[in-house]
Amino acid sequence: MDAELKNLKIDRSHRRAHGSPRRVMRWTIAAALPMALLGGWRVASEKLNVAPVVEIRRVTAVHSGVAPEGVVLNATGYVVAAHRIEVAAKVIGKVKWIGVDQGDKVQEGQVLVRLEDDEYQAQLLQAKGQLEALKAKLEEALHGSRPEEISQALANLNSSKADLDNANVTLDRTRKLAHEGIIARQSLDDAQARYDSALHKTNALRKAYELVALGPRQEEIDGLRGQVQQAEGAVAYAETNLANTVIRAPVSGTILERAVEKGEFVTTSFVGDRGAKGYVVSLADLNDLEVELDISQNDFARLRPSQPGIVTTDAFPDRKYEGYIKEIAPEANRQKATVQIKVGIAKPDEYLRPEMNASVAFTADRRADRQAVSGAARPVVVVPASAVRDNAVFVVVAGKASRRPIRTGAGTDQGIRVEEGLAGGEDLILNPPAGLKDGDKVRHKE
User: Fold this and answer.
1) How far is CA 285 from the centre of its chain?
2) Mind listing the pLDDT tens digit for each residue in 340-351?
3) Do 99 and 112 touch, CB atoms closer than 8 A?
4) 358 falls in which pLDDT band (50, 70, 90)?
5) How far apart are CA 312 and CA 291, in angstroms?
6) Nearest 5°: phi and psi at 50?
7) What is the pLDDT of residue 77?
8) Is residue 258 over pLDDT 90?
9) For residues 79 and 350, is the Cβ–Cβ distance under 8 A?
């Protein structure tokens, strides 16, 4: 029992021999602290180090007796027809006949499509009938009254005069008898009324005779002339509509698209693929082709009007065509940050098709070539375009970035030619960081 109790007691002598727990912990912390500080310093030094890692390339200078003509810029776009025409109908109607197909060559004035014309022929016939009726009325007015009409008016007037004379005699006799008291006063009033009626009738017939003898008034004739002119315009309009049912080629060219078939309805405005068509065919002169390019605003300064270039297509890469800048858009595209340029193709052939992918290699002009030849004795230094920023480059000198202003010349396939600022042998920084400044420390990319 006593032995077991002794085993349960804590041996404090062993604890004193090895020291207290606090002292052990202090020694452990003291030993680990320098290591932690050393590791933190390394991490902080890596995080806070302002010397960026850069890619460096040694600049080489090439001596050449004659500087080759360089390519200023390469751009891609599409071949398009310079003047694509969508031939539309001037009148509405149903296609009766179509005589061309896609790819056919047509001449100016050639009949392409005929529309049904029954309604337009009927309208023309109606307009002609109205014109003839008005012409007849005008002729009648111009010739005046016929002799038979004048004779009839005169006979009516003479008959009325005879009735007037008879009424006058009767009135005189009745007036005497009434004064003598032989007849009643009523008989005198009746005789007077008959006389007055005959007098008014005679006066009216006299005026009618005079009008018939004079003929129509000038104002009436002028009004009939105006109606005839209006009818002539209606006839001309109907004839034009009838003629417009025959659709002809406005220019010579090649049919690019056949938009309608026999039986389809054609209107004067486009209403959709499944509705009435707004045009019947599209054509263009394939001897007048150009390339549409969207040039980045950063590269636009390298080009000028009429600058030459070599045009190639993806379909026929071995065929090369001479081109030149034909048109430069007067405004830029803000969304795409580009400027549209059209390159005319000097001598297109049957291999070129609208909407083909095309590439244009713009070359330096002859003036630039002459300058290059005059400076051919100097070394030619070419640097990648990615190394140039704000007309300057960075080179590494003693572990620091040194900014060198340069003057650039014409571009080449390898990069940008440097006329001044580099002589060759410098360690050039490619793709310099955005925040790099003159004098900043840099590290070489391993």
Assistant:
1) 19
2) 999 999 999 989
3) yes
4) very high
5) 10
6) -90, 5
7) 93
8) yes
9) no
Structure tokens at 154: 């005169």
Taking each helix axis as running N to C, give the angle between helix 118-143 and helix 218-243, from 0 to 180 degrees, rounded to the nearest 10.
Answer: 160
pTM score: 0.51
Residue 44 has pLDDT above 70, yes or no: no
Greatest mean pLDDT among 24-28, 223-227, 361-365, 426-430: 223-227
Query: What is the pLDDT, as a whole number, of residue 400?
Result: 87
Query: How confident is residue 67, by pLDDT bands cut at 50, 70 and 90?
Result: very low
CATH architecture assigned to 53-70+375-444: Beta Barrel (2.40)
Residue 375 pLDDT more than 50?
Answer: no
User: CATH code for 84-116+245-284?
Assistant: 2.40.50.100
pLDDT of residue 374: 40
On the question of pLDDT at 407 being above 80, the answer is yes
> Would you say residue 327 has pLDDT above 90?
yes
β-strand partners of 98: 113
- Residue appearing with tokens 């005679």: 202
Three-state SS for the chain is: CHHHHHHHCCCHHHHHHHCCHHHHHHHHHHHHHHHHHHHHHHHHHHHCCCCCEEEEEECCEECCCCCCCCEEEEEEEEEEECCEEEECCCCCEEEEEECCCCCCEECCCCEEEEECCHHHHHHHHHHHHHHHHHHHHHHHHHHCCCHHHHHHHHHHHHHHHHHHHHHHHHHHHHHHHHHHCCCCHHHHHHHHHHHHHHHHHHHHHHHHHHHHHHCCCHHHHHHHHHHHHHHHHHHHHHHHHHHCCEEECCCCEEEEEECCCCCCEECCCCCCCCCCECCCEEEECCCCEEEEEEEECCCHHHCCCCCEEEEEECCCCCCCEEEEEEEECCCCECCCCEEEEEEEECCCCCCCCCCCEEEEEEECCHHHHHHHHHCCCCCEEEECHHHCCCCEEEEEECCEEEEEECEEEEECCCCEEEEECCCCCCEEEECCCCCCCCCCECEECC
* Residues 354, 256 contacting (CB under 8 angstroms): yes
* Mutual angle of helices 147-180 and 185-214, in 10-degree steps: 160
Provide the Cα torsion 324, 326, 330, 334; round to 10°: -50
CB 235 within 8 Å of CB 131: yes
Domain 72-82+285-363 has CATH 2.40.50.140: no
